[in-house]
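Hi R.,

Here's the input for the protoporphyrin IX containing FE complex you asked about:
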Amino acid sequence: MEFFLPLYNFVLSTLVVSVLFVLWRVSFRCWISPSRAYQKLKRNGFKGPSPVFPLGNIMDMKRAIEEGSRSVKSDDESFNTVSHDIHSTVFPYYACWQRSHGKVFMYWLGTEPFLYIADPEFLKQMSSGVMGKSWGKPRVFKNDREPMFGNGLVMTEGDEWVRHRHVITPAFSPANLKGMASLMVESANKMLENWTALINSGQPEIDVEREMISTAGEIIAKTSFGISHEDGKKVFEKLRAMQITLFKTNRFVGVPFNQFIAPKQSLEAKKLGKEIDDLLMSIIEDRKTGIVVNNQKDLLGLLLEGNGGNGKAGKSLTTRELVDECKTFFFGGHETTALALSWTLLLLAMHPEWQDQLRDEIKQVVGDKKEIDATMIAGLKKMGWVMNEVLRLYSPAPNVQRQALEDIKVYDMVIPKGTNMWIDVVSMHHDPALWGEDVNQFNPERFKEDGLYGGCEHKMGFLPFGFGGRMCIGRNLTMTEYKIVLSLILSKFSFSVSPSYRHSPSILLSLRPSRGLPLIVKPL
Ligand code: HEM
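And here is the predicted structure with protoporphyrin IX containing FE in place:
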């Protein structure tokens, strides 16, 4: 017995030390480190709602959402009137905190500090002198969205981001986008044939949001990695399933060990992520080895050409990186564009005079040619104003995020390294101080004289595609797709708001009509 005593003591003390170590790590991550960050932000003059450990302000946010939905019953009159004054509907907690703390304050998602910004001048001061590569992306979202974006462009940082952006940018050149236009026309025409069949069968009410998501999904899958073969279709379906798994659940982002709150969903997302990676990996390998002889001008083809072209180490992307970029294009690209088109159809349905104006413009630009092509895009000026006005009122990307990778000085305050930033685009786009008293009216003409900023009082007040070096890489692709799809729709159909439409914009990563967008569609 005495022989075993030293071994027993050793095992026991190792166990105690290990437990103490784990406890220390947990309390450092969950308590000590956030408390230090809290004190530092407070010392620097940043105020905000008081957080409660370990949920931060999450319960306040949930309460504000519940109160908002309780105050609007489904048969409520307010559903039948469409108000574009949406900030307090989609972000009730920020609207409430703004009233007490102004346009810059701090709040907490679990144990993660966030600096909320809805003041364009503060944003300008904060970002001047910080290069694209010096911004981080909130770690808490990187972990959470890993199965969707992997280490693709949206999430990379530092020199890695520079390398990815440098390799990918040429794929989005105007010449390459022109090559993709025919894929867009093809998918849009397929959708419109389907509409004609529905209308002929006596169903003039069409949920245009569902239609746009599916068509834009097909377009982005074609333009990213080619959907023409069966594998492409499978990827597309799995990518959609993963998005729904990740964003339709209550996951307490920012709360330590939150993966154990919805373990089934976390595992499901991981499983889907792995299946998508395997499918994309085999598509890429087939292209690389020439098994699929492909002269399609999709983004993957262009990136592979780029890779083969210079072949320099560090100037190309590995197969793993290409997989992540294909996923990033899909998620970053299809829903945002589809929502821009869906909200446009709603606003045009409410303003038939703008449908007429755009139809006249399309007739002038397309002339006696049979159909729109990429060379005509630039001529559709009024359509450009409409697109900007829709992106202002219903910005599909309702926020932009950053993380400070080093201390950042703004006026006499310091934003400490590690602080996350949440830039509230919806608030700035609906701020009467920036846009005037008609801020909540649909008025595309505000972009007539000032095509870039729509007469906004501050150049950082209109940010549908973000800002600085990290601005959206797909904005020209979106513009091309938007104008092609909208021109084809307007040339063949007119539309009005269905009596069954209920106006309920809400956030599910992007800003979407949560009860669909039924319109009554008529052939011209
Ligand atoms: C209406 C359509 C779109 C909207 C509103 C939109 C909006 C945005 C926003 C707000 C950002 C963040 C910018 C920042 O952090 O400053 C972004 C980044 C990005 N977008 Fe888009 N986007 C759209 C379409 C697309 C498309 C079609 C693609 C690709 C095919 C795409 C790919 C990306 C990528 C890869 C990034 C990350 C860029 C980087 O960090 O360097 N987006 N987008």
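One thing worth noting: The mean pLDDT is 88.

Cheers,
M.
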